[in-house]
Design a protein that fits this description.
This protein is mostly helical and about 130 residues long. Helix content is about 80%, strand content about 0%. The radius of gyration is 44 Å and the shape is rod-shaped.
Length: about 130
């Protein structure tokens, strides 16, 4: 009696099906690896972008602080011009009345600066 070839054909068909499934799984695995690498690259790029944006934020804070300092300096200029005007007026008066020699012409005087008041004003503005 002749031996049947059907069982070997069935096992051969199962082997072909498992190879096809294995190839499909390998292909899917490769796609997932590429997808993972793309997501990892996106995450690295996002971290770098975040670091740059934080650097810009720090620079903006420095510029804001510098703007406040400039504002404080510019705030003092009218007082400086007022003081200069008072000095020039007193100098003109001294030149017109030479009998009063108590004040020197060079403008050397002791001036008292109210630091407590200035610091109190600065703390109120902050």
């Amino acid at each position: 009696m002749r031996q049947s070839v059907v069982p070997s054909r069935i096992s051969h068909a199962a082997s072909l099906a498992s190879q096809a499934n294995s190839a499909a799984a390998t292909s899917r695995l490769q796609e997932k690896k590429k997808e993972f690498e793309a997501v990892a690259a996106l995450e690295r790029a996002s971290a770098l972008f975040l670091k740059r944006i934080e650097g810009l934020a720090d620079d903006c804070e420095v510029m804001a602080d510098a703007g406040q300092v400039h504002g404080q300096v510019l705030e003092q200029w009218p007082l400086m011009f007022q003081s200069l005007s008072l000095f020039l007026n007193s100098r003109e008066q001294h030149l017109s009345d030479p009998s009063d020699d108590t004040l020197p012409l060079t403008g050397e005087r002791l001036v008292r600066v109210p630091l407590d008041e200035l610091q109190a004003d600065a703390s109120k503005q902050s």
